[in-house]
């Protein structure tokens, strides 16, 4: 840290002094014998530049006089000089320049912003294959069934990592689990072009991507549950998970030009570098003293630094009230709602670019641009939904009622729009695109419905509860994406293969949610 302090001891700007030592020996001595004008007394001009943690600590120790910080000694001296300065004209001038600019941002906002950025990269690495699968299928000679199998392999790893991710987040803290997850999926993404010609290797690489991304929702849920108060929770969840929509937009925007100019392999290499860059930057932030120990509650940060034995791991796993979870009707409502919402989301995420390309006769770039519209509209809807939910809760509406309203909108809206799209009404292509965009965008109300309920019910077990529901929610990615490709080969009908199954699950999910869902806090006490 470098610090520069200029002190003015006169009310005259660079006026020569009347001192007998009028012969200047150097610029510095001349400067010291000149006096400054038009600046208020008792201020310091300070420029601080933080170079490294080690240097910062060294300077902090060096700037002490008999155990008292020099700044305090200077302030004491300035105060005493200031009293006489009213008569003698002595004083100090300056301002304090803080760097970096986000230094004074509350730590919980830094945490939420960094986590949201990770989710942006997360969905970029998820949607890249939905665009690259078109040229890959042509080059490697894949059928729709084979393409569906390749795309669904991501969800195998995604499903397998949900419960372990929630459990590890509870033990080590969501922050540590998140950074390991980002590094894992980024490295695995870079492997895809290297093994694309060997189907088993390609499947394994996508499973690894799924494992890395699978731990992220539970890690983020743990962070939000422990760090964000109830009245800010809807906005925090919307901001973090809204990064997925931003990532979809960014991925769909960047993938087509990269593929056309550099080949489909470039998408995986470049996107993986973004994740690795995030990981490196996160280590820098983690190394700052102000970040460590404040962004996570003390009890959690202590757990992160503790060395765990095998027995302690086992005891920790046994301490989770698994039976109480599955005896709770509200938990089952979350599980089924998550499954239903994921069926529509994952099948559309994987197959909409192909649907727009084949059904609407669009080329690769046009299909990608049209596919951007639903996640782009979701960003707008998410901001409205989160503010709507938090305002209702702040005004006294029961949390359960708010969550039911939001989730009902999230289910019925896409169901209605898919019904219109699946019927042969003779609508022009742009109207079909607009209808699907509106329905899928309104499904983002789930971020203020289902995705907040885990934290509402139990902040302590929120990450594990999301791990449970997200495990089941990943099944449509495995079954639904592959089944869509199989049905498309068999029936050649997008209505039967893509829309009708989603409509069924949206409607049944609405009924189950309205009847059994609850956001009342649960203790989940273990019973013998």
Automatic annotation (TrEMBL):
It comes from Prunus mume. Keywords: Membrane, Transmembrane, Transmembrane helix. It is found in: Membrane. This is Probable anion transporter 6, chloroplastic. It comes from the Eukaryota. Residues 111-520 form the Major facilitator superfamily (MFS) profile domain. It holds the Pfam family MFS_1. The chain crosses the membrane at residues 236-255, 267-285, 331-352, 372-393, 429-452, 464-488, 494-516. Residues 70-89 are annotated as: Disordered. Gene3D superfamilies: MFS general substrate transporter like domains. It is a multi-pass membrane protein. The keyword Nucleotide-binding does not apply. Belongs to the major facilitator superfamily. Sodium/anion cotransporter (TC 2.A.1.14) family.
């Amino acid at each position: 840290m470098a610090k520069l302090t200029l002190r003015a001891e006169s009310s005259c700007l660079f006026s020569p002094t009347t001192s007998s030592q009028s012969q200047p020996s150097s610029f510095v001595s001349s400067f010291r014998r000149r006096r400054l004008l038009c600046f208020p007394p008792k201020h310091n001009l300070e420029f601080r530049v933080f170079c490294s943690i080690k240097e910062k600590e060294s300077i902090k120790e060096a700037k002490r006089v008999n155990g008292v910080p020099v700044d305090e000694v200077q302030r004491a001296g300035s105060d005493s000089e200031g009293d006489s300065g009213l008569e003698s004209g002595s004083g100090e001038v300056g301002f304090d320049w803080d760097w970096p600019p986000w230094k004074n941002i509350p730590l919980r906002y830094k945490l939420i912003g960094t986590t949201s950025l990770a989710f942006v990269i997360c969905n970029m690495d998820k949607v890249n294959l939905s665009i690259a699968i078109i040229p890959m299928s042509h080059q490697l000679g894949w059928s729709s069934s084979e393409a569906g199998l390749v795309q669904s392999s991501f969800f195998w790893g995604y499903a397998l990592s949900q419960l372990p991710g929630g459990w590890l987040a509870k033990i080590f803290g969501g922050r540590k689990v998140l950074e390991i997850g980002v590094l894992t999926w980024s490295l695995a993404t870079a492997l895809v072009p290297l093994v694309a010609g060997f189907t088993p290797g390609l499947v394994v690489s996508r499973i690894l991507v799924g494992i890395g991304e699978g731990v992220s929702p539970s890690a983020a849920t743990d962070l939000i549950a422990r760090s964000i108060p109830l009245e800010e929770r809807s906005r925090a969840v919307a901001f973090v998970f809204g990064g997925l929509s931003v990532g979809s937009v960014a991925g769909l925007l960047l993938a087509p030009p990269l593929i056309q100019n550099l080949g489909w392999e470039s998408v995986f290499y470049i996107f993986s570098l973004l994740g690795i860059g995030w990981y490196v930057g996160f280590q820098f932030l983690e190394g700052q003293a102000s970040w460590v120990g404040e962004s996570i509650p003390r009890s959690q940060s202590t757990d992160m630094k503790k060395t765990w034995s095998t027995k302690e791991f086992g005891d920790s796993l046994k301490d989770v009230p698994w039976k109480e979870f599955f005896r709770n009707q509200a938990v089952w409502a979350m599980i089924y709602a998550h499954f239903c919402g994921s069926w529509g989301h994952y099948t559309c995420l994987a197959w909409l670019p192909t649907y727009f390309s084949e059904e609407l006769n669009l080329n690769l770039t046009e299909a990608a641009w049209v596919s951007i519209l639903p996640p782009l509209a979701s960003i707008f809807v998410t901001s409205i939904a989160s503010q709507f939910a938090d305002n209702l809760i702040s005004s006294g509406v029961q949390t359960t009622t708010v969550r039911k309203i939001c989730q009902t909108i999230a289910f019925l809206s896409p169901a209605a729009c898919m019904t219109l799209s699946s019927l042969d009404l003779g609508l022009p292509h742009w109207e079909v695109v607009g209808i699907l965009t509106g329905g899928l965008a309104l499904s983002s109300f789930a971020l203020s419905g289902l995705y907040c309920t885990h934290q509402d019910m139990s902040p302590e077990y929120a990450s594990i509860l999301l791990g449970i529901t997200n495990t089941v929610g990943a099944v449509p990615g495995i079954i639904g994406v592959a089944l869509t490709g199989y049905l498309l080969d068999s029936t050649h009908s997008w209505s039967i293969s893509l829309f009708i199954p989603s409509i069924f699950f949206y409607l049944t999910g609405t009924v189950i949610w309205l009847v059994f869902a609850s956001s009342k806090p649960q203790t989940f006490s273990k019973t013998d």
